[in-house]
């Protein structure tokens, strides 16, 4: 006797599904073709992530569309799948494994009463046959979440794609942001370690949060410093794409500055000292790839552009500015900038035209 379409797919093909969204969409489609009276479905996976506790994909039979809902670690626990499906019809669900972190499959019927006994039995078979492919899928998603948390989205994608050989990389064009706190050493000597970690987290939240909000990626946290990139992407023409990267970097650094103003107000209300910082932007080509020892690699960026943005950031304190911008970025933006003249940078042969943002 031939297996139903959904069970045959789970046995033969589901393990190769590229992600939870296509997995749920295809399984739902096949269950409908098998005659199951479904209005929707949900797949929930636990995620080893510093912010996100669970990810839930929601499928609606009427439209065949899948959307994603996130449950955050700091928020009260919410069953997004059950809550959403309950609005469609009676809910059937089963955890696919003994652990509380095991995947959860849930389905909503398209009637008003409970699932018929035969339909519930068929869904139990689906859950049993789904155990192996879902275990593989959950493991891949967990690995991806960990890599993204520690490497960033783009670097994690390259690692997962197998770009692991030392010395390999690619030359890309990008806007670069380099930032760090001022007088961090002195502050750390008079601040209790746990409070110092909280201070660093608050600083990094302002900078990295703004970088990610505008499409950039943090490459490094080095002590109290941050190195981030805004790669040139797309195909609308190099000049426009260069400008897009620089505009994104400028918006991110402006948002970081605004966030630090607010943080300083909060700290001062608590009787704490403000956190002066310096941030620099530059635009150019970088080599982005694997560098390191034979058994310990790192994805990083190197090249003259990285050297220049680091030296430019060091000019913030002498010039009394929190944000400095190179002429290469200024040439790729319509944002109003204040010129500060040309300045020599240590280790850089040619003087650099320097600009800053207007005072807020």
Provide structural commentary:
The chain has 360 residues and is an alpha+beta fold. The protein folds into 2 domains: 5-151, Beta-Lactamase (2-Layer Sandwich), CATH 3.30.450; 164-356, Nucleotide cyclase, GGDEF domain (Alpha-Beta Plaits, 2-Layer Sandwich). The chain has helices at residues 5-12, 20-33, 80-86, 117-151, 153-160, 184-189, 193-213, 238-269, 304-313, 316-319, 327-330; strands spanning 38-46, 52-60, 66-72, 91-95, 104-109, 169-181, 217-222, 225-231, 277-293, 296-302, 323-326, 338-343, 352-356. The strands form 2 sheets. Strands 6, 7, 8, 9, 10, 11, 12 and 13 form an 8-stranded mixed β-sheet that branches. A 5-stranded antiparallel β-sheet has the order 3-2-1-5-4, with helices on both faces. β12 (338-343) and β13 (352-356) form a beta hairpin. The model has no long low-confidence stretch (mean pLDDT 90).
- Contiguous low-pLDDT stretches (5 residues minimum) are none
The CATH H-level superfamily of the largest domain is Nucleotide cyclase, GGDEF domain
Order of helices and strands: HHEEEHEEHHEHHEEHEEHHEHEE
Look up the CATH topology of the largest domain: Alpha-Beta Plaits
GO molecular function: adenylate cyclase activity
Domain Guanylate cyclase: 175-313
GO biological process, one term: intracellular signal transduction
Pfam families: Guanylate_cyc
Task: Sum this structure up briefly.
This protein is α+β, with helices and mostly antiparallel strands.
List keywords for this structure.
Beta-Lactamase; alpha+beta; 360 residues; 11 helices; Alpha-Beta Plaits; 8-stranded mixed β-sheet; 13 strands
